[in-house]
Amino acid sequence: MHPDFPGAPWASPARSLPSPSDHAAEELARNLVRARHERLSGTLVVVGDPGGTFHLANGAIVAVESPGAPTVETLLLCSGRLGTAEWAAAYQAGAADGRIGTELIDRTLVGAAELQLICHMAALDGALSVCMGRIDECLLEPGGGHHLTAPQAIEPDWLLPEVSRRIKALASLRVSLCPFKDRLTPTSAGAALLSGSTSGTRREILLRVNGRRSARDLSFLLARGLYAVTVELTRMLSEGLVAVVSSRTAVPVGEPAEAADRMPNASRLPHRPADASGLPQRRRGMSGIHDVLPLRPVTDCR
Predict the structure, then answer these.
(1) pLDDT on residue 228
(2) CB 260 within 8 A of CB 3
(3) Residue 65's pLDDT is what?
(4) Tens-digit pLDDT profile for residues 56-93
């Protein structure tokens, strides 16, 4: 198994999401490697829970979409960066020939560099969602769809190691949290913090946790990346500000790092080395896209 293609970090039978089989994980890596080497275009459909779709152009990834993470459209609209009328006009003009992004840039609704960064972050969160869940099978299909793609393609050589690092970063936290299944509620400590003068990300999260929402739900609601919200909620869980509404309790993390090493042999994909401790290298801004899309109150995406 290769450490740069992550399996599910929540692999224990006592946890909500089963790990993908080695065969399924190998199939996903094999298809991405094949697409790159043969410069294939089309869609790689990953069937599973939550599953997802890798959109390919000449072997490179131009978008990744998953029900487990916000898409670029969600990030742009629910953050207030774009209005629905502006989006609809750009989509109508550019969807037929795959020029939605170009339309957004030409209409000065978003800058090219900003759109590229948002597309990168959405693709990374989409791939993270796919790889943290269950993978049943992969289907490589010709043709594309009417979706927003990155102005510049995203190389698997960058995406897969980055997904691996983020899974290992989640593994290094004190407790584990399944972003798809675990529903969270504020504790008395969280309510006290909310009633005080706290502001920023934690306040926005505490205003929206209600016992029915998962990290995935909150990432859509806040128009923030799945990884960023999961990291913050996991820290809040360890500090006693929120609690999981479930019969099972959060447990110390040990398995995720092991699962991240249970990878298919994709050694042809180069990766950036970890530090001497074996933990992922941390970089400023790696936890999300809030520098591009500042967290703001959301009123129309509930």
Answers:
(1) 94
(2) yes
(3) 94
(4) 998 889 999 999 999 999 999 988 888 999 999 998 88
Cα R_g (the chain), whole angstroms: 19
| Backbone conformation region of residue 290, classed left if phi is above 0, alpha if psi is from -120 to 50, else beta | alpha
Q: Tell me the CA distances in angstroms from 151 to 8, 92, 93, 120, 160, one per residue in order.
A: 30, 18, 17, 10, 19
Q: Which of 301, 156, 109 is nearest to 224 (CA)?
A: 301
| The token pair that represents 197 in the structure block | 């003068």
The pTM (predicted TM-score) of the whole model is 0.73
Tell me the H-state helices in the chain: 22-38, 72-78, 84-94, 100-106, 112-132, 156-171, 188-195, 201-206, 215-222, 226-238, 255-260
Q: Give the tokens for residue 41.
A: 């275009």
- The answer to whether the CB of 237 falls within 8 A of the CB of 189 is no
Amino acid letter, 202: R
Dist. CA 191–CA 48, nearest whole Å: 36
Alpha-carbon distance of 142 to 153, in angstroms, equals: 18
For residue 145, what pLDDT is reported?
Answer: 66
* pLDDT classification of 5: cutoffs 50, 70, 90: very low
Q: Which helix (H) or strand (E) holds 121?
A: helix 112-132
Q: Write the single-letter amino acid at 26.
A: E
DSSP 8-state secondary structure symbol assigned to residue 20: P
CA distance 76 to 118: 9
17 with 8: CB under 8 angstroms? yes
